[in-house]
Amino acid sequence: MRRSLIAANWKMHGSAASIQAYLEALIEKTRDAGPEVVICPPFTLLPLAVLIAGGSAVEIGAQNCHWEEKGAFTGEVAAPMLAELGARWVIVGHSERRQYFGETDASAASRAKGAQRAGLSVIFCLGETLEQRDSGQTLAVLERQSAALAGLDPGSLAVAYEPVWAIGTGRNATPAQAQEAHAALRRRASELLGREAAGALRILYGGSVKPENAASLLVEPDVDGALVGGASLDVEGFCAIIHAAPGRRPGA
Ligand code: PGA
Predict the structure, then answer these.
(1) How many angstroms separate the CA atoms of 11 and 42, rounded?
(2) With 143 labelled, which of 32, 105, 114, 131 sits at a CA distance of 20 to 30 A?
(3) Which of 36, 59, 162, 220 is catalytic?
(4) What is the atom index within ligand 1 of the atom nearest the CA of 91?
(5) What is the 3-class SS of 166-195, one letter each residue?
């Protein structure tokens, strides 16, 4: 069985003034929820988030990490630093990192390895642009981007399929488009990680997930959860997405 995983990517949003009320409401409203819940706020809010969520089922993650344990890398944060704070997860290879900050398939793979070496679990993001989809390259792009999975420990890994054209645009992939990509990614994971690990791997969908469309996406057999940006900033809406997910689904 695969347990649903619903993760919030706050991006560059959130404040110390508002995080306590948000997390307390989230913890209260999801006490009996089936899915695993992860909140990824900006670095500066991580200590506070870990403190407030401590003792609850809500887990805290970061949005990026460096591949080295330490060193002369001004402005970067190392995975052991995140682990020391009590973060459990880290998002790696997000399309905004690829688009605006020069993240490549190779650097994303290195970051993911660095995170796992430090004991963190990784949400590894990939997805095609609109141009790539329109020219029929979606599956080829996913195959290229997912090559990074080969070097990773499947036991502390989730994959997030996030079509770039659906992120922050209000235009989500249809459930059928998501299912097609997720099934392809699971076949690919089976080649790279083995059949059993691929059957247990959680593949999340991300890109304009909202309370209104969450149930229709999360009902698809290979959509094991969601990585939610904009709609995760509102705690009521995010809780509605969590409650729209089945707790567990059959895995291979
Ligand atoms: P969105 O972002 O939900 O605002 O589209 C998702 C993401 O970038 O992870």
Answers:
(1) 6
(2) 114
(3) 162
(4) 9
(5) HCCCCCCCCHHHHHHHHHHHHHHHHHHHCH
3-state helix, strand, coil in the chain (%, to 5): 50, 15, 35
Could you give the CA distance from residue 136 to residue 180 in angstroms, rounded to a whole number? 13
Q: What is the pLDDT of residues 90-105, one digit of tens each?
A: 999 999 999 999 999 9
Torsion of CA 65, 239, 58, 208, to 10 degrees: -10
Angle at 87 between CA 251 and CA 231, to 5 degrees: 70
The ligand 1 site (C-beta within 6 Å) comprises 9, 162, 167-168, 206-209, 227-231
Nearest CA owner, ligand 1 atom 6: 229
| C-alpha of residue 168 to centroid of ligand 1, in Å | 5
190 burial via Cβ count (<10 Å: 0-12, 13-18, 19+): middle
User: Is pTM beyond 0.85 here?
Assistant: yes
Q: Name 21's Cβ contacts closer than 8 Å, sequence gap at least 6.
A: none
Does residue 158 sit in helix, strand or coil?
strand
